[in-house]
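Interim report, section 4.2 (structural modelling).
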Amino acid sequence: MSKTTSVNLRGNSIKVDFLARVEGEGGLHIKMKGKNVSDVKLVIFEPPRFFEAFLRGRKYTEAPDITARICGICPIAYQMSAIHAMENALGVKIDGMLRSLRRLLYCGEWIESHVLHVYMLHAPDFLGYQDVIRLAKDYPDVVQRALQLKKIGNEIVTLLGGREIHPINARVGGFYKVPSKRDLQPLAERLKWAQEAAIETVRLVAKFTFPEFERDYEFVALRHPDEYPFNEGRLVSNKGLDIPVSEYDNHFIEEHVPYSNALHSVLRQRGAYHVGPLARYSLNFDRLSPLAKESAKEAELGPTCNNPFKSIIVRSVETVYACEEALRIIELYEPPDRPSVAVEPHAGTGYACTEAPRGILYHRYHIDDKGIILDAKIVPPTSQNQKTIEQDLREFVSKRMNLPHDQLTWQCEQAVRNYDPCISCATHFLKLTVEKD
Amino acid sequence: MKSNRKPKLAVWKFASCDGCQLSLLDCEDELLAVAGAVDIANFPEASREVAKGPYDISLVEGSITTPHDAERIHQVRRSSKLLITIGACATAGGIQALRNFKDVKEFTSIVYASPEYIETLKKSTPIAEHVHVDYELRGCPINKLQLVEVLNAFLNGRKPNVTPQSVCAECKMRGTVCVMAAHGTPCLGPVTHAGCGAICPAYNRGCYGCFGPKETPNTESLSSWLTLLGMKDDDILRAFRSFNASAEPFRKESEAHER
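Predicted structure of the assembly:
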């Protein structure tokens, strides 16, 4: 039982002051009236850091390194969205091996981030442990496998990016330095093991017990003509959305909520939507590799999944995909002629969405003729999922009011962790306001 | 710390990206050994379990940016025997210290509709401006192996083996040809604290100073070299004003190029 959980004397509220095993700091307040849930608030008190403000006046070349600092868990996602948005503004198109290397880099981030969440942040909920260290005492082999699998993700990022957190090698136009064929070979050997370990991970988590809980979400993800999406594609949903990324601002708006003071992103006239592994998987099942599909089938996962607790299986399936895709890229790799293409600044506006491990990450920049940023907008996945998380909790709790308080509290935390929320990301733009009566 | 009881370790977060505390979880080969040597008593990113203080070692990530956090850091200090700050946010104010160079009111009203609601301090400040700090580990992000070394050193009552020299020394050790001398690539290596392993020059890129200033850096001299390489005042200002913008030598040098 977490000591940061407080129980109201009349037992009519659940209050988790510090949500554990999420990235960043937030809390959860649920109020009940009789047998009904009267209010659910995912409270974010992570301090604001004003990234959009101080990006103004910086050079377009600096955006990838600066925005990476929004999140230490998914810096690649920030670098990729920033780079693609700048290339979009400047009419630069990257293809061939440089494009493949970006996908490989993203595979690395998906592997390390997904494995971190599956084993270290989420699995302890299903197995009844406070954390992975305690889990390791009873399941040392499982945790060792997890650490080695996570390490391979980090090795990909380190080789291509220089280091695992805030890597330094990606730039607008390509990379500073590209690896030789030989540099990548040791990774291939390790990835063959990783692919098997990822399949074992799917098998392990598929055996967990999942609450009966499904909702009719509007899933939003990128969709590419022939790939499972990382960097490119149209924005689509299962309820009719199908737009180029440049139209994002016409369809998505940010609502101000007074309590958490973070902006909640919603679809115009439709409301909450769901981004991340479940959305990607359900909208792109046909683009998965054969091995990942087979693995999903073995786990009795259909081509869509509406149970957010099963996101742990989907993350594991995506890890299989990322290992297989990384291997494919390495096998076909030939070093490109040059590490980057020439980029000349001119005035313009650029848009990009890429698939961060937690879902779509939107960047938009206006730059002037010298490449100085005039205006920046960043919408991270966690702020897009906030409203959906609250709706999940409302429905989840209302059907479980008879559970003992401790158990219900833990399950609510677990329901929040389904989304692997990255609160550090969600608050980079946070309006920290004081609620005044 | 030589009793049978395992030393209690706590990890605290202030304004930051989470990356430095993630470094601990990124120690895939050392994590279980570290967890065996200490009692992880407060590490919300990794565990639901929270044990009460006092703590033998507190690792503090992030900078102070809100009135609430300015209070909270004193509680952390009171409950910690040793307080070690990790990363550029905690040791220099971080990237969010870019606000320190603007009028924060004007700054927020540019971006926010209701600036009167914004509960934030005018400046982002390092932990050492608020409480006594026993050791500072630099970097944006920190080097995870240096973190293990620092923990190891304090657990065994010895001085951490963390050199205060420049990134240049690390290039020499790594055998990297100087990007500035050989290719004319602007590089902050000569004034930047070692610790990263001189990654950027090894990737044909100039150092961008994410470990902050080294001991007694000659930033003025470097700036004159950067000017010779074609950098304008604006470029030099931005180069010194990034992840360690508020660290004094870098702050002064960026201000010297303000027009």
